[in-house]
Amino acid sequence: MSSQTKPNAEGKKCPLPCVLRHLHCAKPPLRLASKPIIWVLGGPGSGKGTQCDKIVAKYGFIHLSTGDLLRDEVKSGSERGKSLNAIMKKGQLVSNDVVLDLLKEAIEARITKANGFLIDGYPREKSQGMQFERAIAPVTVILYFEASCDTLTKRILGRALTSGRSDDNEETIKLRMQTFLDNNQQVLDQYPSKLRRINAEQTVDAIFSEVKKILDPIMARPHPAIVIN
C-alpha cells in the first residue's frame, strides 16, 4: 500500500502525501458539547475585563485571554514556554498558530466545566478571526464595548495612578489606541450579522444590562457542537 493511500484513524484512505498525513489523519476530530463562543472586543480602557467578570459570575462562562494564556505557558517552564519567553523578550510577536494552539488546548481542557467561552481581546485583526473559525468553531456573537478615544484615554490615565503599569502613559496610550483602531474596524466589518455594539460610556451596571439582553436569548437556544481537529 502506498504512503498516499494509507488508511487514516477512521479507516478511510487518505489522499494526502505522507508529509501532510500526520496533520490530517493523526486522530479523528474530537466532537465536543455545544457551547456558545463569544468574542469580547473593545479598546484599551473600555471595561472588557470588568464585564467579563460579571458574565462569568452570571452565566458560568470560561474567560480566556490570549495574554494570560501566553504568560501561563511561560510560567509552566515547558519547552514551548521557553521559546515563547525568548520571542517576547525580543519584543517580537508570537505567531498566530501558537496562539490558536493555546486557545484550542484551553477550550478542550475546560469544555466540560464551561457553559460557554469568552475570548477576550481576540481577534485583533481580520485574518485571526478567519483562522479561529476554521480551526475551532464559528463565533456565536461579538460583544463590542464602544467608547470614544477621549473616554478611553482618560480611563487609562486614571488607572495609571494606581496600576504601576509601564504602558499606562499618554504616549504609549496613543500608540495602543491607533493600533487598535487600525485593525478593529476590519474585524467588525467581517461579521455584521454577529456584531453587537454596546455603549461603554455608561456605568458598569448599565453596560451589563445591555450585555444581559444579548446573552439571555443566546443561552436559551441550542448551539452547534464545537469540533476541534
UniProtKB/TrEMBL annotation:
Annotated protein name in UniProt: adenylate kinase
HAMAP family from the UniProt entry: Adenylate_kinase_Adk
Family: Belongs to the adenylate kinase family.
A GO cellular component annotation in the UniProt record: cytoplasm
InterPro entries, per the entry: Adenylat/UMP-CMP_kin, Adenylat_kinase_CS, P-loop_NTPase
SUPFAM superfamilies xref list: P-loop containing nucleoside triphosphate hydrolases
Pfam family, one: ADK
EC number per UniProt: 2.7.4.3
Native source species: Arctia plantaginis
Transmembrane segments: none
Keywords: ATP-binding, Cytoplasm, Kinase, Nucleotide-binding, Transferase
Record localization: Cytoplasm
Domain of life: Eukaryota
Molecular functions (GO terms): AMP kinase activity; ATP binding
